[in-house]
Amino acid sequence: MKGALTNRRDIERLFDEGRAGRSHFLTVIVREVGVEADPDGRVMVVAGRGIGGAVLRNRAKRVLREAVRRAGGPWPGRHVAVVAKRPLLLASHEQVDQALADALRRAGVPG
User: Is 89 helix (H, G, I), strand (E, B) or coil?
Assistant: First the structure.
């Protein structure tokens, strides 16, 4: 994914200082960094071991990356983490898209 968030310091600051938006299928954490600091924005997708084995985690990440693309991410001036929850594996693409939009709105990203 273009605009992936990989710098350890940026990731730590995102999780420490970011605003969270939650839904049944995922959690979104957003940190405003400003368009001057990062005009393209950065996104990271997380699927922890609670999701299941490697095959299920990889599937969850693919689903989330595609949902981020459909939602217009990465978002300029923002670092965003999208964290999968186990029910995501049973959700339709429409449900994931709606959950992502709702979570982003709750975290303060305008739609």
Answer: helix
Domain range enclosing 27? 8-106
Taking a C-beta distance cutoff of 8 angstroms, is the pair 77, 39 a contact? yes
Count how many domains the chain has. 1
- Asked if residue 92 belongs to a domain, the reply is yes
Per-residue pLDDT of the chain (111 residues; tens, 9 = 90+): 566 888 899 999 999 999 999 999 999 999 999 888 889 999 999 999 999 999 999 999 999 999 999 999 899 999 999 999 999 999 999 999 999 999 999 999 886
- CATH number of the domain residue 39 falls in: 3.30.230.10
Torsion angle of alpha carbons 93, 98, 100, 106, nearest 10°? Answer: -170
Classify 60 as helix, strand or coil: helix
In a domain, 58, yes or no: yes
